[in-house]
Every structure is written in structure tokens, then in C-alpha cells.
Design brief:
It is a single chain. This protein has 529 residues and is α+β, with helices and mostly antiparallel strands. It has 4 domains: 158 residues, Beta-Lactamase (2-Layer Sandwich), CATH 3.30.450; 86 residues, Beta-Lactamase (2-Layer Sandwich), CATH 3.30.450.20; 59 residues; 162 residues, Histidine kinase-like ATPase, C-terminal domain (Heat Shock Protein 90, 2-Layer Sandwich), CATH 3.30.565.10. The chain is built from 14 helices and 16 strands. The strands form 4 sheets. Strands 6-5-9-8-7 form a 5-stranded antiparallel sheet, sandwiched between helices. It has a 5-stranded mixed sheet with strand order 10-11-12-16-15, covered by helices on one side. A hairpin with a 2-residue loop joins strand 8 and strand 9. Helix 10 crosses helix 12. The chain is rod-shaped. The C terminus is likely disordered.
């Protein structure tokens, strides 16, 4: 059975049940009202008969029925009751609609009115089943001398009720028809609102939708027109480190300011942002339903690994350039030595070799012996070679000391600071570029200091350099740069530390980062070599 038919039949059943209950209640109330009206009338008539002086005086006559019968008939006809029966204290009738029964004993028990009480109820007498009232008749001394009984046949009560039933039934039928029409309209309205789909189809679509939304590799965030989160798939929860409680809250309360800004901006965007320690590509667009904008949708792609690969590529490119320069220099030296030998100047060739030293070695210098972290030592060796080929003197403080802490936080921070320092020195155009590194560790924190003799950090940029997407190289915010120092700041805050930028003694900038001892089980951040 279709959903529309089910809705119609259910509503029709409800309407019919309500109409039936309402009709039964109305009939019962009408029946009770009719009986109460007859009861009030019969009580009034019985008491009037019992108090008539002519009726009371007739009890002293030889044949009371000659006086009482005409009076009872007149009252009966004028009031519309079925009968008015007057009896003496022995139950002998003095009046009755059937004159042949006058003088006989009543067929029902007269003990209640003879005891001085009023009786109201249904009894079956000579005329049939009737609704009756019996009251005592008292003489002048207050003694009970007889009873007055007034009644109406139950058939007459039913006739009065049936007289009103057609009109009541008409109203009930009209109500049932109106309810049925409403049921048809509501069932069609609901059917149209759910796009004429059946429950099984809706369930299938919902299951498919959930499977697609939560199964895709991209994060999806949807907000309504008030910027409250309406949907978060599993990947978005993972990337943004949110849980189910975020649904229904304002995006600005649970998300990074940069991401929340993209969701509130009415323009469609495609930007790279930093969320926590992840580099994400965020693409936002408006959500339309029937050509009406109802909110915004954001698609998130994790670009952390890509960012790492691009950074690795930059490092490899620098190393390749350094090796190419070394190969070119080595070839020049070999040509020189070959020429001196061909000219027979053997001693001069030996002197040239001595002067050349070991310039072709991987590292022209040594790493401080206190640096026991192999990752940090390898990074410093590689950066030393790259710096040398760029004409930069990279100096590692001999007092530096560092023990492995089980994470890549130190390598990440040190790599970003060294890259920034060498890029700043190279960009300044100074022929005597210098970068100094000092590493220190104790029970309280790991301290990383990188100083250079570049142009330094302008005062107006100090507050912005740690913001996601802010880069002084291009003069402000960009879409592809400006994540390094922001990542350093977030790693420091996660490790209960801080980042401080100051003027270095070399004339450029000096960055100092404090990292508290790592905790087991912390999530390793992005590694930037």
C-alpha cells in the first residue's frame, strides 16, 4: 500500500472514530437531557396533584374517583404526560387513563412514596415500561393518605430522541465528509512535500546519502543561513578535530577563524588554510534549494602531505643546485690540476691540491657533539651544505645540546626557522650572510634559537607573522604561503611553550622557541625538513 493511501486511511479512521465518539456522546447527552426535562415536569405535576385541595378533600368522599379521575385526566392532557394515577394508602387506584383499572390495586410497589419519600425511576406497569415519579399525598394533619404517580412511557422518550436524531446525524455526516476531504488533502500534501516518494525509497536515499557523505575522502561542512553547522561528515570531524557536539553550534565557536570566515563570506572561495597543524584546501560555495540560498557548503582536502612533499622538493632542489655547483667547482679544479701536470709543474699542482682542502665534502664543518637527536643532526648537516653553496655561513653553537624526544616537533620548528632565515639573508643581497643556531634542553623545556643578519622583522609585521596565510615576502596575506611561522606557533602552544621574535646581535631577526617536554601519545605534527 502506498504511503498516500496509508496516510488517508489512518486519518479517515481517526476522523470516523472521533465522529462516532462525538455522535454517541451527543446522543447520550441528548437522551439524558430529555429524561431530565421529563423528570422535572413529572415531579412538578405529581407535587401539584398531591397538593390540590380538591384531591385531598376527595379522599373523604364515598367515591373519591368521581372527583379525582376528571382532575387527573385534565392534568394529564394539559401537561403531556402519559398518565396521572392517584391511589389511597392501600394502593387502590382513584384515577387511571384506563377507567376499567380504577378501584384495583396498582401493579408496582407503592411503599417508597407511602414512607414519605419521592420515587423517581423506570418501572413496568399496566401501560408498559415508563419513566415515573411517585410522591406521597398528605392530609391537613400531615398524615400520608395516598400517593400521586405521574409517568411517561419510555417509548415516548425514545420518540423525542429519535425526532432530533436526523439533524444530529446530518451534522455528523457533514463532519465525516469534511474530515475525509481534509484527510485526502493532507495525504496529498505530505506526498508532494516528500517528492512523491515512498518510505522505502526515502530510507534508501537516506542510507545512500549517509554512505556517500561519510565515505568520501574529502571533509564536508554545511552551515545554515544563520551560520550554524548543519552537517559534518567523518573526514571533516577528523581534519578539524571536532565531534558530534559541534553540530548545531555556530561555526565561529568551534572552527578556526579563517575557516569560519570562509563559511560566512557570501562569495565562493578556494583557499589554502591552516587548521590546527594541518594544511587544508578549503572550497566553499552556496547551498541552494529550489533556487533559494539556504546556507553554505565547504569541501576540505588535506594538503598536509602535499605541503610536505613541496617542502621536500624545495630542499631537494636546493641540494641539487648545491651538488651541481660542487660538481662544477670540482671539474674546474680537476682541469687546473691536469694543466699543471701537463706543464710539468708537479709541485705547483701539489700546492694547489693542498690549498683546495676538502671543499668537495658534504659538510664543511662539524655538528656540535651535544646534539644527540639524529633527525636534528641530519637536518643541520643538510642545511649547512645548502647554506654554504648559497654563500651563507651557518654556524651551530658548539654548546648546543639536544636529546631525542620521540617526536618530530624539533625538526619541524628548526627546519622552518632555518629556511626563513636563509631566505631572509639571501633576499637582503648581503655577501656575508650569517645564520646562527643554538639548541638547548633541560628538564623544563627545549629552546631553539635561530638568528640571522638579514633585514629583520618590521614592527608592523610582528603581530601578523604568526597568523595563518600571512607572508612578508609577498607583502601580506597570500593563498599559498605564510604557514611556516603559524605552524611553529601552534606547535609551541601545543607543547605548552611560546615563540619570541627579537632583534639579533647580527643585525637581523632572532627567533626563540620554547617547547615543553613531549608527552607520550601526542600526535606527531607535520614534518618540514
Amino acid at each position: 500500500m502506498s504511503l498516500r493511501s496509508q496516510l488517508f486511511l489512518l486519518q479517515l479512521a481517526i476522523v470516523l472514530i472521533i465522529v462516532a465518539v462525538a455522535g454517541s456522546t451527543a446522543v447520550a447527552m441528548q437522551r439524558q437531557q430529555i429524561r431530565e426535562q421529563y423528570e422535572d415536569r413529572m415531579v412538578g405535576v405529581a407535587q401539584s396533584v398531591a397538593q390540590l385541595p380538591s384531591v385531598i378533600d376527595a379522599f373523604d368522599e364515598t367515591d373519591p374517583s368521581k372527583t379525582i379521575q376528571p382532575i387527573a385526566d385534565l392534568i394529564r392532557q394539559s401537561t403531556g404526560v402519559t398518565y396521572v394515577v392517584v391511589t389511597d394508602e392501600d394502593g387502590i387506584r382513584y384515577s387511571h387513563p384506563n377507567p376499567e383499572l380504577i378501584g384495583e390495586i396498582v401493579s408496582t410497589d407503592p411503599s417508597i412514596p407511602l414512607s414519605g419519600k419521592t420515587f423517581v425511576g423506570t418501572q413496568t406497569g399496566t401501560l408498559g415500561k415508563s419513566w415515573r415519579v411517585k410522591v406521597p399525598i398528605l392530609d391537613a394533619d400531615g398524615s400520608i393518605i395516598g400517593t400521586a404517580s405521574v409517568g411517561t412511557l419510555e417509548s415516548e422518550l425514545d420518540a423525542d430522541l429519535y425526532e432530533d436524531l436526523p439533524r444530529l446525524l446530518a451534522w455528523l455526516i457533514v463532519a465525516a465528509l469534511v474530515g475525509s476531504a481534509g484527510a485526502i488533502w493532507i495525504s496529498r500534501l505530505v506526498w508532494r512535500r516528500i517528492y512523491r516518494l515512498e518510505p522505502e525509497e526515502i530510507a534508501s536515499l537516506l542510507e545512500t546519502r549517509d554512505a556517500m557523505i561519510h565515505g568520501i575522502s574529502e571533509g564536508m561542512v554545511a552551515v545554515d543561513e544563520h551560520h550554524r553547522i548543519a552537517l559534518l561528515n567523518d573526514e571533516a570531524k577528523r581534519l578539524l578535530e571536532l565531534d558530534d557536539d559541534a553540530t548545531g553550534r555556530l561555526a565561529a565557536d568551534v572552527m578556526e577563524p579563517a575557516l569560519a570566515q570562509l563559511l560566512t563570506d557570501p562569495a565562493d572561495t578556494d583557499e589554502t588554510v591552516l587548521s590546527g597543524e594541518r594544511v587544508l584546501l578549503a572550497r566553499t560555495s552556496g547551498a541552494l534549494v529550489d533556487d533559494k540560498r539556504v546556507g553554505r557548503v565547504m569541501i576540505l582536502r588535506d594538503r598536509t602531505e602535499l605541503y610536505q612533499l613541496l617542502t621536500d622538493l624545495d630542499g631537494e632542489r636546493d641540494a641539487t643546485q648545491a651538488l651541481r655547483a660542487q660538481a662544477h667547482e670540482f671539474a674546474n679544479r680537476m682541469h687546473t690540476i691536469s694543466g699543471l701536470l701537463e706543464l710539468g709543474r708537479t709541485q705547483q699542482a701539489v700546492d694547489f691540491i693542498s690549498r683546495s682542502g676538502h671543499g668537495g665534502s658534504l659538510v664543511s664543518g662539524s655538528i656540535a657533539p651535544g646534539i644527540q637527536d639524529p633527525d636534528a643532526a641530519s637536518l643541520l648537516m643538510t642545511k649547512s651544505t645548502i647554506a654554504a653553496e648559497k654563500g651563507i655561513t651557518l654556524t651551530i653553537d658548539e654548546t648546543s645540546a639536544l636529546e631525542p624526544d620521540g617526536t618530530t616537533d624539533v625538526v619541524t620548528v628548526l627546519g622552518i626557522l632555518l629556511d626563513n632565515a636563509m631566505e631572509a639573508v639571501t633576499g637582503s643581497g648581503r655577501p656575508d650572510g650569517q645564520v646562527v643556531v643554538h639548541l638547548a634542553a633541560d628538564d623544563d623545556a627545549v629552546r631553539i634559537t635561530v638568528a640571522d643578519n638579514g633585514p629583520g622583522v618590521a614592527p608592523e609585521d610582528v603581530d601578523g607573522i604568526f597568523s595563518s596565510g600571512y607572508s612578508t615576502k609577498d607583502g601580506g596575506h597570500t593563498g599559498t604561503r605564510g604557514f611556516g611561522l603559524a605552524l611553529v606557533d601552534r606547535i609551541a602552544r601545543r607543547r605548552s611553550g611560546q615563540v619570541v621574535v627579537d632583534d639579533s646581535e647580527l643585525g637581523g631577526a632572532e627567533f626563540t622557541v620554547w617547547l615543553a617536554p613531549s608527552l607520550a601519545g601526542t600526535r606527531p605534527p607535520l614534518r618540514v625538513p
